[in-house]
Write a structure and sequence with these properties.
305 residues; ADP-ribosylglycohydrolase fold
Length: 305
């Protein structure tokens, strides 16, 4: 298999893997621990089986924004998010607060800062890492640009720098896997080292995820570092896509987001064919695969300049 073909299969696995993990986890969101792990999609909230949530909706919008603007443009991204707000499924408290202010006419910069203050300084949500996959695919071969884009995208909603740093870490993890890193364990260790000085709290969360026991996890909080730890634990708990996503769902809590992030990272590592065939029929699967391919085109066109 050529390097480019392998890249495209990993990118497809990453973006589709996000949607699948999201759709599988959605029916169990904020339940307790899940014992009856899904082998197929289930309906929820009057939505048909295979439907995803805000995790994938906002990821698709991020991909479309990058492709339309030829770069990660936070102004365009904020506008897209605000316009789609009425149709976002399962919107979180931080995102709702920011987008409401943008729709009222505030700039996204003012909206994020105001929301941060309104929420008592608690804006380090996991939304920053749930929609990072398209950015990782678009900039996988340019780490400095990837970090800037990830941090910028996170900042559209989350004022707290912890979310920006965590987004950059997950983006770099996915980029390493897209570039052909063989083992998730090695990629995680490399990212931890890269963030030891830049963002020690993020590096610590990565390390804790690799060493934690299941009963030490905090899947209910939606705090970006707790979610990062849950995702790392889930990735190392399984040996393939199904086992990793099942681990993310089994622990309960924010199952759609943890399933989405775990699915994106696992898909980037093992490619689209590691996702069970019946799961690949998730909502808008063909659109998602097309976007993944276009994001690869974008990344390769940038490196050819």
């Amino acid at each position: 298999m050529s390097e480019e073909k392998e890249l495209r299969e990993r990118a497809a696995g990453c973006l589709l893997g996000l949607a699948v993990g999201d759709a599988l986890g959605a029916p169990f969101e904020f339940y307790g621990k899940v014992t009856d792990l899904p082998q197929e999609f289930k309906s929820y909230n009057d939505l048909p089986a295979g439907s995803f949530t805000d995790d994938t909706q906002m990821s698709i919008a991020t991909a479309e924004s990058i492709l339309a603007c030829g770069k990660l443009d936070p102004d365009d991204l904020a506008k897209r998010f605000a316009e789609m707000m009425p149709d976002i499924r399962g919107i979180g408290k931080i995102t709702y607060c920011v987008l409401r202010k943008i729709r009222e006419g505030h700039s996204w910069k003012h909206a994020t800062e105001a929301a941060h203050l309104e929420l008592g300084g608690k804006s380090a949500g996991n939304g920053a890492i749930m929609r990072i996959a398209p950015i990782a695919i678009a900039y996988w071969n340019d780490i400095p640009a990837l970090s800037r884009a990830a941090e910028s995208a996170a900042g559209v909603i989350h004022h707290d720098k912890l979310s920006h740093d965590a987004a950059a870490a997950v983006a770099q993890l996915i980029a390493l896997l897209l570039s052909g890193a063989t083992f998730i364990e090695q990629a995680l260790a490399a990212v931890e080292v890269m963030f030891l000085e830049k963002a020690p709290q993020v590096a610590r969360a990565l390390r804790e995820g690799a060493t934690a026991r299941e009963n030490e996890l905090s899947p209910q909080t939606c705090f970006v570092l707790d979610s990062l730890t849950c995702v790392v634990w889930s990735l190392l708990e399984g040996k393939d896509y199904m086992e990793r996503v099942h681990a993310a769902i089994r622990i309960g809590g924010d199952t759609d987001t943890h399933g989405a992030i775990t699915g994106a990272v696992s898909g980037a590592s093992t490619g689209v064919n590691d996702i069970p065939a019946n799961w690949r029929e998730v909502e808008r699967a063909s659109d998602i695969l097309r976007l993944a391919d276009k994001l690869v085109d974008f990344s390769l066109s940038r490196s050819a300049v």
